[in-house]
Fold:
Amino acid sequence: MPENTKNMPTVRGAKISKYPIEHFVADPEDTPIQATDSAVSTEAPVSLWLEAWRNLRTQPLFLISAFLILAVIFVALFPGLFTNEQPNAQCMLANSDGGPAPGHPLGFTQQGCDILARVMYGTQSSLTIGLFATLSIVVFGGTIGAVSGFFGGWVDAVLARLGDIFFALPLILGAIVVVQIPFFRENRNVWTIVLILAAFGWPQIARITRAAVIEVRDADFVIAARSLGVSRTGALVRHVIPNSLAPVIVIATISLGVFIVAESTLSYLGIGLPPDVMSWGNDIFSAKSSLRSNPMALFWPALALSLTVLSFIMLGDALQDALDPKARKR
Amino acid sequence: MARFLLRRFLQLIPVFLGATLLIYFLVFSLPGDATAAICGEKGCTPAVEAALREQYNLDQPFWVQYFLYLKGIFTFDLGTNFAGQPITDILARVFPTTARLAIMALVFEAVFGIVIGLIAGLKKGKLFDSTVLVFSLVVIAVPIFVLGFLMQFVVGVKLEWANPTVSGDATFTELILPALVLGLVSFAYVLRLTRTAVIENSGADYVRTATAKGLSSRRVVMVHVLRNSMIPVVTFLGADLGALMGGAIVTEGIFNVNGVGNTLYRAVLNGEAPVVVSIVTVLIVVFVLANLLVDLLYAWLDPRIRYA
Structure:
């Protein structure tokens, strides 16, 4: 116990307590620091991603959606393995709107084409569009969002307004306007549709990335990196972006499904992919006119489309639960 | 309050100018000519083409065209379509129909989405909650035109509860079915947003405090949980009003509603660029104003957000 309490300096004007101030300092042996130091962690530290993976492996939602997605990707890569029919070459008008027949389990379209073959071969364009549109918005929107969140100030203000401008145009509306531009009207293919969807889809992912980056930007490990001499851009690329990826991945997964729906909506309106490209949207569009007499021609491509979209949305859901430790603990 | 309003309003100006400029640029200044759509495949004589270019200001430099167009917006003179009808007349005819449709859809998705989302969130993990979640996923995944045809076929043709198509008057009862279809996907989103927010807020300290100080559970849920859960929902609904009006293209096509979407679709197919630009501009204005309204609602919902 310190003995010189009487000679402690006093603050002028302040009222001093009449009781001596006692200072108590615990012995080092009794401090909890000792206990903390001696505690040995039996588990190796686990990263967010490994922990998320362990959690995901046990989730039925994730397993089902992952299986469906792998199956869809496989069909898109090798459609010929699932049907003996050629989707376009063997169309017989004699089979128009025909029901299921031997070798043609799903029946025929109005043009007498095998529905199963068309659904299988149509997978590719829908999936390609979804995948590449999502990749583009993650790269473009993600960069814009990360830069505007990290640097702030006028850069943020300008980029946020730019995002607002594109955000003010709903995806389908913007796509419709662009599609009627003569250049796009004459060059309708998978890649121009990807371009159009990405052009009006990026602001959302930019907003999500910006919010995630702002959350991480002032974290201790970023300040530590900066004080160790890492440049601003280096800190952004090496520390901030990897730690704010989780919400971006979730939204990107869901966007993939949304883009597939958007493509089919454009094709349904007759302004998406040209009729000679096989896609679910085009098949639904051509089945529309014979809906009352042959509803199955619309049902099967719509089912394939819905299952694919559903599996991407379910995957997004599962990832969200796995990557958000706060939500998991509850 | 007035300063806050003014600031938000000023922030909208660059968005409005940027979006209209973007649309105008996309439609009028990329390769290809709007007159080609009027003249068709045969082509016009140079004299007719020159007259058309003058009529639609295409003979002016781009910036002059854009400013003439902006002037037209503020003087309610949007020019004419290719058939010579003033575009303002067309809009005055079709806009109320779509506005009615979109607002009915918005009310449907807001009321049902919030109520069902609240119940699901309070009963997290129960059978009701899981059923609702699966249902919402299916609704989001099935394209709206499939849902539309299905509802039209089942409710309109088989059960004959409603007319499968809408007449020119577009009365309230006729629009119920299309509004349900239009609002269905957003309903699923509202439901999920409300559910997530309710689950998050149910564990908050202020909810525990409210329960601990003896408030009835009804008051805790309605005032403390629900009101605090409304912020993401209101944001979504505000942005959705614009999307509903623009996204009505498919629904209006299925149910034959003579609204903005159908007019826009026809204009796109005919290549009537001036009509397309005007309609999209009106939709942008709706979107921007709806977002302004959302900002005001924020401050009412969450007093921590200051009018600064």
Q: What stands out?
A: The radius of gyration of chain A is 30 Å.
